[in-house]
Design goal:
Order of helices and strands: EHEHEHHEHEEHEEEHEEHEHH
Radius of gyration: 20 Å
Strand content: 5-15%
Number of helices: 10
Shape: globular
Strand order of the largest sheet: 2-1-3-4-5-10
Distance between the termini: 54 Å
Length: 320
């Protein structure tokens, strides 16, 4: 496959979601005029019959599989069976369907949760199999990691061009701010913005604050996925990240400062921290398809806070 997607019929599963919308925008910005957003209301990808119908009706030449059932630590603890089954079934059936349909290229987007709990920092792709994932998100991580095995097995047996990407924790405008299912940055933004608005003297945050994370702005993640779709045809998984690392304690203090909240932060150490450290080696993405994150973290955080405040204000006006 060449270095351009122009003229290709492309299906993006999860294309109406937080990351998917930006991926679709970037594809269309590259003059990809035949991009189809695969939505759950049209195709339930957990159902084999719907996957078969997708390939029959849409006839894609390229598939970018972003759809996932996902959440933060709490949601993973409450839904381990669902997160394993639905993510596994979607991916397995889509990859098999792509093989049967003769799809030119399949892009499987995995998860950083697939890495072992105690992976040496920075995480290198070659360490992916050197241990079991952190327990609170292991079912989700293992399901996604199994799809790497399938991509490589299908490449070996059938010559299928399937690639596998490992984006780190994403954030940005349009993220999920539902406190029951959101990840750490939107959860913290909501907590502090709401607490400031209500004049609350303290905000409670899960864990000890000692764990570290790396974050990638959604526009950067989308650019990395599109660049890989255009230019990467290798069998090895590739990290997509920013190469930065910040502790949850530092993150909470930063979000509090950027939202103007000056109350007390209270840490609930009875709640899990999750994986102790998380930061990626991003060398392979730079070498293989020229990807480097562009958006500086504080700037991305400010854009996300502003988006949440604007959206919240619009919702408040709509109810009055």
């Amino acid at each position: 496959m060449g270095n351009t997607l122009e003229g290709k019929r492309i299906c993006v599963t999860g294309g109406g979601g937080f990351l998917g919308r930006v991926v679709v925008e970037k594809l269309r910005g590259r003059s990809c005029n035949d991009v189809h957003v695969v939505r759950k209301r049209d195709y339930d990808l957990v159902r084999g019959a719907d996957v078969e119908r997708l390939y029959r009706e849409e006839r894609p030449e390229v598939v970018i599989h972003l759809a996932a059932v996902v959440g933060g630590i709490g949601a993973n603890r409450e839904n381990p069976g669902r997160y394993f089954y639905e993510n596994m079934m979607m991916g397995v059936q889509l990859i098999e369907g792509a093989r049967l349909a003769g799809v030119e290229k399949f892009v499987q987007v995995g998860t950083i949760c697939a890495y072992p709990k105690f992976t040496p920092v920075p995480f290198k792709e070659d360490d992916l199999w050197n241990g079991y994932p952190e327990e609170t998100n292991a079912p989700y991580g293992v399901a996604k990691k199994a799809l790497l095995v399938q991509c490589q097995a299908y490449r070996d047996q059938y010559g299928m061009n399937a690639i596998y990407l490992l984006p780190v924790n994403l954030y940005g405008p349009g993220d999920n701010f539902d406190p029951n299912t959101s990840h750490v940055i939107p959860a913290l933004i909501k907590k502090f913005v709401d607490a400031r608005g209500r004049g609350l003297p303290q905000v409670e945050v899960w864990g000890t604050g000692a764990a570290t994370r790396e974050f990638l702005y959604v526009d950067d993640a989308a650019e990395g996925i599109v660049l890989a779709t255009e230019h990467y045809d290798g069998r090895e998984p590739v990290n997509l990240g920013s190469g930065m690392e910040i502790s949850i304690r530092e993150l909470a203090e930063l979000v509090a400062r950027e939202t103007g909240y000056d109350g007390q932060i209270v840490w609930d150490a009875s709640k899990p921290d999750g994986q102790p450290r998380r930061a990626l080696d991003v060398t392979r993405a730079a070498e293989q398809f020229g990807f480097r994150a562009r958006v500086e973290f504080v700037e991305g955080l400010r854009r996300t806070i502003e988006w949440y405040r604007t959206t919240q204000a619009s919702a408040a006006r709509a109810t009055t």
